[in-house]
TrEMBL record:
Species of origin: Novipirellula herctigrandis
GO terms, biological process: fucose metabolic process; glycoside catabolic process
All copies of domain Glycoside hydrolase family 29 N-terminal, residue ranges: 26-346
Signal sequence range: 1-27
Family annotation (Pfam families): Alpha_L_fucos
Highest taxon of the lineage: Bacteria
Protein name as catalogued: alpha-L-fucosidase
């Protein structure tokens, strides 16, 4: 009876606290979101004890079976007890080559504006100093350095926003996974640990700009309590919708600042609310020694542009090695994307989704102020044409042309079809951006029709182009020919 009374009291007090803390909807301003909307592009880091195992356990490779979650899911996939997992890996965790300055410089050079690192993933291991559990980098490993502190301080030094991923619901070490896999804590003790962890992360590391909760449970009261605590201690932190289970309706996710799409997802429609997608450069999030499914730099630049065309932030992942280094395949890709961003970043940073709710067989659009940016992913030497925007452009030029020489433009006022003459070869085969400037704010043709949506899976994209050549977009070419 006492226990029940205790629980009822806890729920009552929690609810009362929430009611007092949560500002009325009308009073909620979203000014803390502006930097995030402008940023558009950040680094995701999956790092922890699992990096030592690299997707293998006792000689078995758990990589491909997990479809991209072998590394950080190894404890679950290989059914490893918390005792054995910690006993085997924690004493080996000594990434002496870890250099926060280097990691942050790589992210900055890549054009990324924020970093989100796993502070505690589902394996329960904490990459920060905590009094709530001794299963942390300071007490359980020979490394004894607070990774969250070193990275958060370096982000301040180099002008990037810093945030943490935190697995608040899944914890295969502290929570029981069933009769044969007892956790170290009861449910009540675990929830108390989470609250303590959050207080430590929200109080001991300066400005915490992102709280990237991952895979919420169904208990909205629990989630709201955690969200309210973030608001209270870090009012400017941007909170991920994964604080809540996907089964919780969007309008009940009181503390979610942005919708985190399912992993690696590119939506076909434009997202008019704050939305982010996260993407791996290969199959896995964490380090996996056998995963060679690398996306090319073109794939990544294309995906970044398509996210922009949907109004979606991109959180691009790296999975550092047990020694504390990013892989050369990661740094090469990040550097290439960074060079592309140095020239074309104005078409991504602070830009919003395409003025039209369809793409084109050459690519997709982003917009900012009075400019539409054409991300030409598939070159068309016969010319780049588009429908859907009203008005004769004042000027069109390649973003990667330092002189910004004007390109020849024709505009069919009757059909609102614009065509831009271009050279035989693409200036940048990965994504050539054409800035199309207007004298007034960009106006979409409400009657514009289009049915092409880009996908990043190469086979699907080519299928789409082939299908559209027969069914859809070629008539755009004919229309322009007729208009001449
Ligand atoms: O289970 C995790 C997974 O390991 C990884 O952290 C991804 C990243 O978005 N989140 C969960 C699966 O969606």
């Amino acid at each position: 009876m006492t226990a029940n009374l205790g629980t009822i009291t806890r729920i009552f007090l929690a609810t009362l606290t929430l009611a007092l803390l949560a500002p009325p909807a009308s009073a909620q301003d979203d000014s803390h979101m502006q930097w995030w909307r402008d940023a558009r592009y950040g680094m995701f880091i999956h790092w922890g004890l699992y990096s030592i195992a690299g997707g293998e356990w006792k000689g078995k490779d758990y990589g491909k079976e997990q479809g991209g979650a072998s590394a950080e899911w190894l404890m679950n996939s290989a059914k490893i007890s918390g005792k054995e997992y910690r006993g085997t890996l924690a004493r080996q965790f000594n990434p002496t080559e870890f250099d926060a300055k280097e990691w942050v410089a790589i992210a900055k050079d890549a054009g990324m504006k924020y970093i989100v690192i796993t502070s505690k993933h589902h394996d329960g291991f904490c990459l920060f100093e905590t009094n709530a559990t001794d299963y942390n980098v300071m007490q359980a490993t020979p490394f004894k350095r607070d990774i969250i502190r070193e990275l958060s301080e370096e982000c301040v030094n180099q002008g990037l926003k810093f945030g943490v991923y935190y697995s608040q619901f899944k914890d295969w070490y502290h929570r029981s996974r069933g009769r044969n896999a007892p956790g170290t804590m009861s449910n009540e003790e675990y929830l108390a640990m989470v609250e303590k962890n959050l207080d430590e992360l929200l109080s001991n590391y300066g400005e915490m700009s992102v709280l990237w909760f991952d895979t919420g449970g169904n208990d909205v009261i629990e989630a709201d309590r955690q969200g309210a605590r973030v608001r209270e201690l870090q009012p400017n932190a941007v909170i991920c919708s994964r604080l809540y289970s996907r089964r919780v309706p969007a309008d009940k996710r009181k503390y979610a600042d942005f919708e985190s799409l399912p992993d690696r997802m590119l939506p076909t429609e434009r997202m008019t609310k704050d939305t982010e997608t996260c993407m791996t450069m290969r199959h896995n999030w964490g380090y996996d020694r056998n995963d060679n499914h690398w996306k090319s730099e073109k794939d990544i630049i294309e995906f970044l542009a398509l996210c922009g065309a949907r109004g979606v932030n991109l959180l691009l992942n790296v999975g550092p090695t047990p020694e504390g280094r990013l892989l050369p395949e990661e740094t090469e890709r990040l550097k290439a994307v960074g060079q592309w961003m140095k020239v074309n970043g104005e078409s991504i940073y602070g830009a919003t989704y395409s003025p039209v709710d369809f793409d084109f067989w050459w690519g997709a659009m982003t917009q900012k102020n009075k400019t539409v940016y054409l991300h030409v992913l598939e070159w068309k030497p016969e010319g780049i044409e588009f429908n859907g925007i009203v008005g004769n452009p004042r000027k069109a030029h390649f973003l990667n042309d330092p002189q910004r020489k004007s390109l020849a433009v024709t505009y069919d006022a009757g059909r609102h079809i614009t065509k831009i003459d271009v050279p035989e070869k693409a200036p940048d085969f990965r994504n050539t951006v054409i800035a199309v400037e207007y004298d007034s704010p960009v106006t979409a043709d409400p009657d514009a029709k289009g049915k092409y949506h880009w996908y990043t899976t190469r086979s699907r994209r080519h299928t789409e182009i082939r299908e559209n050549r027969h069914a859809g977009n070629t008539d755009l070419l004919d229309a322009v020919k007729e208009a001449k």
